[in-house]
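In this supplementary section we document a worked example of the pipeline. Step one takes a protein sequence of length 196 as its only input; no multiple sequence alignment statistics are reported here. Step two produces a three-dimensional model, which step three serialises into structure tokens for compact storage. The input and output of this example are shown verbatim.
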Amino acid sequence: MVRADDPSGAGEQHGADGGSNPAEVAEVDFESLARETCLAALTRGPRSRAQLARALRRRGIPDEVADSVLGRLAEVGLIDDAEFAAAWVESRHRGRGLARDALAQELRERGVANELTVAAAGRIGADEELATARRLVASRLAATRRLPAVARARKLCAMLARKGYPAELAIQVVRDALTGEGVDPRELEEAGVLQP
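The serialised model returned by step three reads:
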């Protein structure tokens, strides 16, 4: 960084940690600021390239500097959207029970390219998604036992819908779970609950 009292730029340089007084600084070292911003964000958790680019824009980093810094971070493996997407899907599916559609939407919101989003969400197979939906419903069954059967079915289907499960799959899983507890599925069908 060039000091304001040294127009030649040949004088003392100050780093990001460097003890310079803000009044002495004539220009901002955008590259250092961009690098520090990205590294600080990455120490808090994985980020997509688009998330980091948004953070740099908020800090006022010029686009050409941001592109350069992000490119170097990608070259050394600190930014990898394919790896980010795969880890995101694994974590959110296992931890929150989110379905493929919900996971793909979350990745798109984080600026991950569509082809990477589709590939990452596609790692969860239909059988795994079904098994996860069954686990989710099983974990909530006890909390719904005091409710009427129709209310239970609605509550359980709504929970799966919020997690991104398709209606047909949610209906199948809820019907199987409630039937396993002795609920007559005809009662639910007559109430229009278990219909796609």
